[in-house]
Amino acid sequence: MNVTATNHDDVSALLTVTLDKADYKDKVEKQLINYAKNAQVPGFRKGKVPLSMVRKQYEAGIAFEEINKQVSDALNNYINENKLRLVGQPVPQPVDDFDHNAEQLSVAFEVGYEPEFTVDLSKYEAPHYQVEASDKEINQSIENMQKRFAEQVPQEKIGKDSHIALEISQVVEEDAEGEHHHHPKNTVVNADKKEAFKLVKGLDMEGAVKVTKEDLAKNEELAKELGFSKEEVEHLHHHEIEVKVKDFYGLNLAELNQELFDKVYGEGVVKSEEELREKVKSELDEYFQQNADVVFVNKVLEQITEKEEVKLPEIFLIKWLLFSNENIQTEEQAKEILEAEKNVLKYQILEGKLMNDNDINLDYADVLAQAEQLVRNQLAIYGIHHLSDEEIQKYAVEMLKDQEQVRQVSSEVAMAKLKDVILEKATKKETKISHDEFLEVIKK
Questions:
Q1: Which of 185, 205, 251, 380 could anchor a disulfide with 150, C-beta 3.0 to 4.6 Å?
Q2: pTM score > 0.85 for this model?
Q3: So what's the pLDDT on residue 176?
Q4: CB atoms < 10 A from the CB of 443, how many?
Q5: What is the per-residue pLDDT for 52?
Q6: How far apart are CA 85 and CA 72, in angstroms?
Q7: Which residues span the domain enclosing 108?
């Protein structure tokens, strides 16, 4: 058995796998004898079926499977041994007059692979923001804690300090065809959600107002505050929604005392308002820095994608698209799709190259640690900060039973490791800015 490569250029080649009959003959013969021993054919006792009869019926199929296996193994070994980073999958060339009894067989595959290049991260520079939490952010975070454990106070009418519980449902027209069962959405709004608050502030308990699909499409902020994404608005089955007031109330903020400190962080972790402010500032600074690091890395990756030349095996990719996707019928269609996906492919190749060149590998411990952090983040949203490491791990292991979650978490781990490499090797232009200024940077 032999594999030879005929290069078309530096990113594509024709790989030809050549087998001699001797490579697979003995294995095929062994399987035929096995079949003969176990075959049950009318008129013959088990194990007494003539080998010639078994050969006539099964030899071609067995030989095809064995040849296919050996060709596949040989191809994969060649790709691995030569460290070819494939783009797409090998495309087999048609084999005319397949004859398993021939003394020699050849099967050829078109392949495309990533070009050889290096990325010098040190030549890329971007702003690395230093964002420190101010009294404004600290006070807001503490107030959010107080609101989370606040006492609800009944009100006679909606006021500027009200929190309004809303039920949002689609209005089914009388002549609507078919049955669409839509579960209503429920949300709570206050004066911070300006558009939704303005919509319902004049209503009484159980009062309702209708909003058209067109109004939601025009006012994306209102749609968002009512719980609708842009895509959900586009796919609403009916022309109107009804927004109904189900409850409204004020809040008596929780006092800044030991009881609140213990509810938020666990018993005895924070013992005074001064310690609370220090703890909150530390958490905010860490969170802001994580976001600043992400902005820096994204800026560097944008520059790399823009400036690095990545040659794609375009002729091969057109063949691969035609081979692998039955919905693509013509070369023109394949070219259009390739043109639309070029930037995505280029980014994937660059990302893979950076990971490969910097020895970024994943193991289960990395993935589990990231899953545990995701669990902690989710629990923190609900004010839960004091579960034991064993309990956190139990939730994380349960999460990783879902293969889609494994894929997502693994991707996050890989990007986190790549982020660390870029932070270490790319050039930082240290820049101090306020949190409000940083938010404007993120928006842009």
A1: 251
A2: no
A3: 59
A4: 6
A5: 81
A6: 17
A7: 2-112
125 and 104 in a single domain? The answer is no
Its sign, for the CA torsion 62, 66, 67, 69, is positive
**pLDDT average per 10 residues of sequence, the chain (444 residues):** 92 94 89 80 75 82 90 94 92 84 90 92 95 93 92 94 95 66 87 95 94 94 93 89 96 94 91 95 92 94 92 94 91 94 91 90 89 84 74 90 90 91 95 91 83
CATH number at residue 234: 3.10.50
Regarding whether 377 and 279 lie in a shared domain, the answer is yes
Do you know the residue count of the chain?
Answer: 444
| 88 shares a domain with 176 | no
14 strand-pairing partners: 6, 110
87 lies in a domain?
yes
Residues 55 and 202 in one domain: no
Same domain membership, residue 125 and residue 105? no
The reply to whether 163 and 233 lie within a common domain is: yes
